[in-house]
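Homework help board

Subject: predicted structure for assignment chain

Our instructor gave us this sequence and asked us to write out the predicted structure in token form, then describe one feature. I got the tokens but I'm not sure how to describe them. Can anyone check?
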Amino acid sequence: MADATLSRENAVALSIFASYFIIIVSLFYLIISSIRKNAVSQKDRSGVWVWSGLAVASFGFTWYWMFIFMIWSFHDHERKVSTEALKHTILERMTSWLTNTDLFKQACAIVCSSPLNWWWSEQLCLFTAGAFTIFLYIHRERVPHTWAYMLLGQVLAISVAWCLFNLALVLVPWHPGQERTQKQLPLSLTVPVLLSFLTISLSPYTTELSFLPNLLIMHALLIVPLVPPFSRIRSSPLSPKTTSFYTLVALLALLLRIRTLSKTLYFLQVTSSPFFSWRHPRDAIVILWNAPGVLFGAALGMLHSHPAQASIGWDIIWTSIGWLCWCLCGDRNPDAQWSTTETVRNLFPTIVASVGVTAPMEIGHQLREKSSVKEEAPLKEE
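My token output:
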């Protein structure tokens, strides 16, 4: 009877663990098969190589550290069990580990454990809840299964999902004059996005009991606008302009980044950083001069402080690189020339303020430029 019970426990624990990887493989299959089905041949294959290469690189970096985290978690669990338990089979030890460890909660708790950890993690949350969600929604008619990209980003890596989605956009048929601009965004999108920003703002203040529900609510909110019937809604009463909402999202992200930055600098001061000792008003100049170096030095030190932190940290880095590549090639027609103007303009703000701030600001800026060109075209013809 004991063996039968143990077998059931093994099956449940291992099936839950295996189902996580099955979901990832299934999403990959759905996305890749969809891209291949809708792809058209390209004269210039540079965009295909760029986004494919970035997707592979970001997957390799983030998941190398994720597997290292799983190994760390397993050994951390075994340090807490009795010596007798270590004599069990590897299957029984894995079952004990998976049964008594919440990997998702454990990883998220680590990457939000201090203001400096949150300085990293918040960047990814803001980009995902803001620019990425809106971007997926706007292009849902060009690329099918946008919800799959969001879900893949949540369970795997946002950087991988971002690169794959841009790969799909590069390969999708492009017909001049058939492009439909989403001038307004329905409440079925804007409300979940704003609520997800609320959950992000509350994350640093959650308790051990409220942390995981708050995080799961944020993830669920971002899936809702991308699944039918919500994804079929083009407009609704009180729908804001797309460009205006992008600007609002950028401003909200900027406010949250300023709050996080101030808390991080205070955290570094409390941890006795010599650069933040205040004894004379003139020390303010020294503090302002040294603060960027101290902040980014501490952030780089935090990057590899733990495997879970390294995984999300590299996800943020590759998302930022992918964003700058989007600025380079953008969502243009296949015959357009690549330009470095947007990349140079966004490089420094992305490093300082984060991709969560610059992405919605830049995309909104480009949409305003496109709309102004379309409005001027009929006037020139007249």
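Reply (TA_rk): Your tokens look well-formed. For the description, you could write something like this. The chain is about 75% helix and 0% strand. That's the kind of observation they're looking for.
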